[in-house]
Structure formats: structure tokens, C-alpha cells
Amino acid sequence: MYKVLRKHLERVIEISDQEFDEFCSLLVLRKLRRKELLIRPGDRVTSEFYVISGCLQAFHTSENGDQSILQFGIEDWWVSDFEAFFNDTPARLSVSCIEDSTVLELNKEMLEELYKRIPKFERFFRIKLTKAFVALYSRIQNGLEKNSTTRYLEFCETYPHIEQRVPNYKIASYLGIKPESLSRIRKELAEREASINKA
Amino acid sequence: MYKVLRKHLERVIEISDQEFDEFCSLLVLRKLRRKELLIRPGDRVTSEFYVISGCLQAFHTSENGDQSILQFGIEDWWVSDFEAFFNDTPARLSVSCIEDSTVLELNKEMLEELYKRIPKFERFFRIKLTKAFVALYSRIQNGLEKNSTTRYLEFCETYPHIEQRVPNYKIASYLGIKPESLSRIRKELAEREASINKA
DNA sequence: TGAGTTCATTGACCTATGTTATCCTTTGCT
DNA sequence: AGCAAAGGATAACATAGGTCAATGAACTCA
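^ Those are the sequences you sent over. The predicted structure of the assembly is below.
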């Protein structure tokens, strides 16, 4: 079970068995049921979650009750309300399970202790952060210059594993459009494809 | 001139005169003219830029020539094509001056040398990165759930100094709408305000 | 000073997306 | 099996924002 995690770390830093064990000793294994909430608005967020199996979502609920999904989390991803996590402010997002899931909970304070003992873990998370930063940057760029159809197609290309397992209305929410619009887009794409196949 | 920079650092970490001098010794002062380009697509990006005075923009140019602005940079901000900077990939953005500007150029390799000598600078940039990450996160959230009028009003509130000095069509570009739309939005807001004042 | 450039605004029109309501299928539960 | 809930599609209509074209003000610079 922890093999995937070890690989995950070793794509960025080299670690010994002992260092890996020390890292694992900070983690709390949690088994979660579909729809279970890990973080709700207002919570103090002291942990981030590494997904072993299943699928999570981080989403914001607006005053009128609409939800917009900021992040999906499947196997090998980290999920949290990172604004609250980094800034020690009350959560503005919710994090919940789309499927039954198994996650490893990593406490922030324990992590900072670990940074002092084994600095290479600080390096690991700094590099993860730059990657996440760049990913957000290009998501903003997509939002600025691409239409919904293109954004949907690129989402399917970039995250085929997510597209296949989460309902369309959640994808719509992530893309910033309504489910009805996504439905229209998918119909349009299917028709396009059909007419190509006929020709 | 470097006083502002020192304050900028000291909002996050404490540093001695000597440490500050060592940091400054890495920096190259550059005076730039309006419209001058610091980074163009395809460049290798080895530096980030701290703005002493003036105003920069980081923008993407799409195939059909449309530009979308990802970031403005005024006094006390860092600007670059961060994707290229962090990943050592060719620049996809351009960075140019909206006004005559003075910047301090910080070379990535020299910075990494400095990290080894004085680790607290690594801490400084890691914290700056978390702040930037959170800012991008909330920009995405705004894009998902707010209409253009709201986004414009919040932009004016959040960045009054930018709103006052860059042309409206650049603000429109940053917000992901066309200048004509922003013009209509501004008209609508002015009318609303007028009718409130009359009442 | 005068011509060119940049920028903002406006109007007419068009298109993509949102809204509301309804219907149908699938899935899950007991 | 039978019912409820979830998910998806669709249609009619409304609206925000994009497109295109024209105008004029303000600024720049030779």
C-alpha cells in the first residue's frame, strides 16, 4: 500500500528506508465512505490528505448554494483546502469523498518538525508546490483564452481517469459551466464525430 | 532604493545587514523603457524580476494574436514567466514594460547557491510561493463563480494602484473579457451610481 | 503644429451559455 | 421487486458577452 507513496516521493527526492519509515510514522490511515466530509467550511485545517484509493473533491459553496469544484483528488494526489492549510485561516472550502476512499492524513505541525530533522522533505514539498503553482497558472490561462468546448476536451485529455469516473455535472462545475451546457457541448462533439465517421 | 526591498524581505524573515548585502550582491539593477521586452516566448528564463518602480505585464499571445494578461507587476512585486522559470522550459509568456520601469534581476542559479549558504532565503521564497499559490487559487475560484461585473469591482478594490495606471483594455484582458464588455460594465456601474446619488 | 497612434465608447447584431422545466434511464437500497 | 435518488438529456426562452464597425478624445512625436 505504501509502495505507491514511496514512488511518489522518489520521483522528486531520494530517500532511505529509514527516512521513508519516519515519514510514514507521521501518517494516519483513514478509510472513508462516499459522501463523507473531511473538511467543512469554518474548520481549522491542520492536515493535507494523500489519496491511496478512491476520489475526493475540494469545492466551494456560494451563498445561494451553488457548488464549484476547485480540485479533484484521485490516487497519488494531495488534497486539502490549501488556502486554509497554508495561512492558518478557517476553511472556505469543503473536501468530501466522491467514492469510498482511503487516504493518508498528514499533520502540518508534525510535518514541520520533520522538516527540521530531515530537510529533504521540505525540498520535496517545495517542489510539489512549484508544480501545483504552475498547474494553477495554466488553468487560469486556459480560462482566459479558451472556450468551454476546448476546455472540456483538454480536461478529458489531461485527466482521462477523472473524466471516466466522476459525473458530468461535477466536470461542468470544475470547468465553470452548467451541466446543461456541458450536455450540449457533448452532443455537439458526438455529432461532429458521427459526421466524420460517415464521411 | 533598496530600503523597500529590505522591508519586503523583513515582512517574512529577519535578516542582518550582512545577509541583506549578500542578497543584494546577487541582484542586477536594470532600467527599462516602456514597451521594452524582458522575456519573449521561447526564451530560456533564468531570472525573476523584482519591481522597484514602474509597471510590468506577463502575458500570453495566442495563435490568432490575441493577448491575455496573466499578471501585472508594480512596485514591490516579483514578475517572471514562472512556469518556464521553475520548470526550465522555454518561455510561453512574454514579459514587458507598461511604463518605464526599474527592476532588480535575480538569477536562479545564484539564488540556489545562496539557499545553501543562507537557508532562510529558501524559507522566504517558499513562503512567497505559498502566498502566490493561494492567490492563484482564489483567482480561479472567482473565475468559476463570479460574473464579470463582480470580478471587475473586486479587481478595483484589490488592486486600486493597478486599476489607476493601466489602460482598461489590459484590465479587461486580465479579467478574461473584451474591452467593449468592460466599457459596457463601467457604463452600467456609472449609471447605477448616478441613480443612487440622485435618490 | 499636425499627423499618427492609442484608447475608450457606442450601437447593431450574433452566439454561447444560463435558466427553468420536464422527462427518462440507471443505480442503489430494502 | 419496487421505490427513491442521482444523473443526464432536451427544449424554449432569457441574457451576458463577443463581434464588427464607426467615432472621437487624448496623447506622442517628429
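Chain A has two domains: 1-120, 133-194. Chain A touches chain B through 28 residues (CB under 8 Å).

Shout if you want it in another format.
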